[in-house]
Amino acid sequence: MNAPIADRTKAADAASIEGKNVVKTFGGFTAVDDISFAIGKGEFVSLIGPSGCGKSTLMLIAAGLQPLSTGAILVNGARLDRPLTDIGIVFQDHLLLDFRTALDNVLLQAEIRGLPMEPARARAMELFEKLGIAHAADRYPKQLSGGMRQRVSIARALIHDPSMLMMDEPFGALDAITRTQIRHDLELLWMETGKTVLFITHSLEEAIGLSDRVLVMSPSPGRIVDEIKVELPRPRPAHLGDYPSFNIYADRIHALFRQFGVIKY
Ligand SMILES: Nc1ncnc2c1ncn2[C@@H]1O[C@H](COP(=O)(O)OP(=O)(O)O)[C@@H](O)[C@H]1O
Ligand SMILES: [Mg+2]
């Protein structure tokens, strides 16, 4: 079955990414233990797992930013041997420069990439509109709320229209209400753009609320222990508990974490 995305024509430009038996050791310590996965073009996949299980390490490897010990990453079927450039990345910490306005922070990415500035500016403003922060384009990061800063980070990650987006606990530092709204806005943006997304989280609501598929990781050394295909209509509601199947998915993940002793009750 196809991933339930809104704009299949755009997804054709998105990338596919595959991990084959990825192992990462730091000295004698195994952080990622033989992980294989495949994310199709335009698919939204979350990686959920307890702190320290190797999620960030796996994402950095998938982005070509960290070497793997053994195994391979394939992007559009080709083995990755350098950092991916056709990608946008969002981290938990917004990493915005405080001496640049929101707009200029986004445009920095365009400058570094040598993109023509006028179309980049227009595109940045279009992204700001979609993310509900157009009114704050000329504000400095210190003048923005945490949620707005993360919205700027998302715009920065998309300014060059990459074929893939990787997000490492992007909403981890936000309050619950802000998280619910930004989750919804990200879902709408994704439905419109059809990007391939690898999303890292330890929130069940985010994983189930956003994904086509959820990959569940074991505690360290990280392995993928379950894969859940989320069959809920989009866009998904703020209160996911309205769907009986949300509770079934959530129970399944809780049961795994209980089995691994991550949840003890
Ligand atoms: N550069 C590194 N050197 C040594 N150990 C590391 C390094 N990066 C991560 N680790 C270790 O690998 C494990 C997984 O880390 P990480 O991928 O950050 O986990 P997660 O993102 O799931 O919380 C942790 O035990 C962490 O301490
Ligand atoms: Mg991490």
From TrEMBL:
<dbReference type="InterPro" id="IPR017871">
    <property type="entry name" value="ABC_transporter-like_CS"/>
</dbReference>
<protein>
    <submittedName>
        <fullName>ABC transporter ATP-binding protein</fullName>
    </submittedName>
</protein>
<dbReference type="InterPro" id="IPR050166">
    <property type="entry name" value="ABC_transporter_ATP-bind"/>
</dbReference>
<keyword id="KW-0547">Nucleotide-binding</keyword>
<keyword id="KW-0067">ATP-binding</keyword>
<dbReference type="Pfam" id="PF00005">
    <property type="entry name" value="ABC_tran"/>
</dbReference>
<dbReference type="InterPro" id="IPR027417">
    <property type="entry name" value="P-loop_NTPase"/>
</dbReference>
<dbReference type="InterPro" id="IPR003439">
    <property type="entry name" value="ABC_transporter-like_ATP-bd"/>
</dbReference>
<dbReference type="GO" id="GO:0016887">
    <property type="term" value="F:ATP hydrolysis activity"/>
</dbReference>
<dbReference type="GO" id="GO:0005524">
    <property type="term" value="F:ATP binding"/>
</dbReference>
<comment type="similarity">
    <text>Belongs to the ABC transporter superfamily.</text>
</comment>
<feature type="domain" description="ABC transporter">
    <location>
        <begin position="17"/>
        <end position="244"/>
    </location>
</feature>
<dbReference type="InterPro" id="IPR003593">
    <property type="entry name" value="AAA+_ATPase"/>
</dbReference>
<keyword id="KW-0813">Transport</keyword>
